[in-house]
Automatic annotation (TrEMBL):
GO terms for biological process: pyrimidine deoxyribonucleotide catabolic process. This is 5'(3')-deoxyribonucleotidase. It comes from the Bacteria. GO terms for molecular function: 5'-nucleotidase activity. Belongs to the 5'(3')-deoxyribonucleotidase family. Coiled coil: none annotated. It comes from Psychroflexus torquis (strain ATCC 700755 / CIP 106069 / ACAM 623).
Amino acid sequence: MEKPIVFIDMDGVLADLGAGAKASPLFQEDQYKNDPDDIPDIFENLPPIKDAIEAVNKLHDTKRFDLFILTTAPWDNPSAWMHKRTWIEKHFGDKFYQKIIITHRKDLLIGDYLIDDRTARGASEFKGKHIHFGWDYVNQKDNEYPNWESVLEFFDCN
């Protein structure tokens, strides 16, 4: 029997881009205030989202799911592509070796679940279940799955 495929977004789900941007002195420059993902080397040392590393390791260790990292990288910041990969390796070792997908069209992938904090880049059109994670900055409220504890509960991994 095939395991359910779970795609996990990186920014806002695993890595805290907001905290990383605020910690960067370049964030105060006009060119980066609205596009912090264009800050050079921003993705290299982002802090993890609370409980993200432990929760993903728990999902992995159940051996019930086929996990992939599914992320978008800024087109104008090519070093981000490499830094996202090294961030994942730093925090997860080889668990995601050849299991990292970078795309601007998440709706084109076939899987059972997508854990993502946004609806952009095809997440809202994803054919499986969108596990809408974290905080909705537009509406200033929690998404359906506000934290990793709620995600683990959904997957019956508490």
